[in-house]
Amino acid sequence: PAHQSVISGIEFQASQVIERLEEAVEKAECEGGGSSAGQAWKNSHAFLPLPSKPNNEILSLLEDMIVNEDSGSHNNSPDEEGVVPSIAPLPQLDPAARLAVVTHSVAAYASGLERSHLQRLCTRITSDTTRWLSHLFRFFDCAAFIHDDMLEGIVRLTRMMLHYKYPKYLEDGFDALTSHPPVIYSSVASPLGVVQHICRQLGLPMYCVRPVPCNTLFGSQQKIDVAALERLIDEDKSNNRIPLIVLADAGTTIAGHVDNIVRLQELCKQHDIWLHLRGHSLAALAMVSVQNVPSRIADSFTLPLGIWLGIPALPVVTLYRESTLPLVAGLTAEHFTRRLSSLSLWAALQALGRDGVQTKVREAFESSEQIWKKISKYPCLRLLSQQPGGEAETFTVAELVSKPVSTAVLLEVVACTVVFQFVPESVEGETLRVPSYYDKLNSWLGQILQRDAPQVPIEICELETNGVVLRYCPLEMGGEKIPDANDIGMFIVCLEQQLALGSPLG
């Protein structure tokens, strides 16, 4: 039928553009660029040219800028003659990722539909997607906010809590807050930029943010000190401040530690504070095939599914427990119901199926488990990430997939990342920061592993409490193949050679 051929036509054209880009990269790699490569970066018009350009010419310009990286200088100086720009690596697209990219074109086309039809279509797509995600992530009776910016969900949830705690906020704005300022609690181990962004977006002063210390004597130095948080809450309430939201981690930014979610949940319920969870360990909720009785461990989650599934075109999802406030806070604003923002996610989830999602996530956690176990055998390497299986190594990933465990236990026994560093033997078993000389050695070791064992991608990072560390995170691999046992074996051989030779580590 004619109507169906419209979607097929869009799919064909969008696929052609993707294939054209992939072929252009292959050609550039074979030919080593050329004199015209990257020329579009230098030819910029101050004003829109008068004559129209044919579509093919516009796409050729775009292709040149996507395939070739900008050299940084747009002057045709003699020094730059003969300099060939670097060829940009294109994202890896499996069939599900390719479909997600194509559906962005379909969503743009559908935005021109008659208003009531578009609204019904958006409602159907969003409700399907929300229902599927609520079952995948064991968060029933929830609503979903679909957004492009990673932090937009937290901003809107904080605004929702302002409306809840300050009934006159809608009428009085900031005046409603002045005598009883709100408080946002965030761990000192979390990036400061997150709470700064929330305050900027909502017009809140930075004194509304309460940095919560991490454990010092017992437990991980990356986890929130719950007793300290309780003291801060009591202190704030006695000073006429209103606790609003606690931002907790199920996988801290670098080392992947999970806060004590059960105790945080009890504390937040006791004081009527919203508990928000973010972090890569939340992906483990979708890994379990046994559908347990749901265990709501927080009031909301941030789910960056595009990052976890290696699909570049997917939006971020914030799942939150339903209430009447989201409408006021703009979480379900009318203009969102007229945008097919969740279409790429709706299509990709179906293309993968539950089996596909579970397999991708399981393989990621299994690779962390395998690498952690291999690295733990070397006394000169200190592991700083959460131990897979928990401290008692109670569960393997294979067991977690089929055994019913509570959500809180699941998050405590998965490792979303492996973080380690070379340390002098004198500090083995301690958690002190290594001498600065060892920062250079770890950086050097990381560079050698990146060069000689790229099948296990390693990132060189810095932890404030420990210095330079090496990090493997399979949930951030952007669609590349998760390392299998053979890849991990080759990586460990390379690592072992460096440790044995003392080559950088002498």
Structure description:
Residues 432-500 form the PDXDC1/PDXD2 second domain. Keywords: Decarboxylase, Lyase, Pyridoxal phosphate. There is one protein chain. By secondary structure, this protein is of the alpha/beta class. Among the domains are: 2-90, no CATH class; 97-105 and 118-353, Aspartate Aminotransferase, domain 2, CATH 3.40.640. The protein is built from 18 helices and eleven strands. It has a seven-stranded mixed β-sheet with strand order 1-7-6-5-4-2-3, with helices on both faces. A four-stranded antiparallel β-sheet has the order 8-9-11-10. The longest helix is centred in the C-terminal third of the chain and has 33 residues, at 343-375. The mean pLDDT is 86.
Q: What is the second-level CATH architecture of the domain at 97-105 and 118-353? A: 3-Layer(aba) Sandwich
Number of H- or I-type helical stretches: 18
| Strand segment tally | 11
- Walk across the major sheet and give the strand order: 1-7-6-5-4-2-3
Counting helices, strands and paired strands, the structural category is alpha/beta
SSE order: HHHHHEHHEHEHEHEEHEHHHEHHEHEEH
Overall helicity: 40-55%
Q: Give the CATH superfamily of the domain at 97-105 and 118-353.
A: Type I PLP-dependent aspartate aminotransferase-like (Major domain)
CATH structural fold name of the domain at 97-105 and 118-353: Aspartate Aminotransferase, domain 2
State Rg: 25 Å
Pfam family, one: PDXDC1-like_cen
Protein name: PDXDC1/PDXD2 second domain-containing protein
GO molecular function: carboxy-lyase activity; pyridoxal phosphate binding
Keywords: Decarboxylase, Lyase, Pyridoxal phosphate
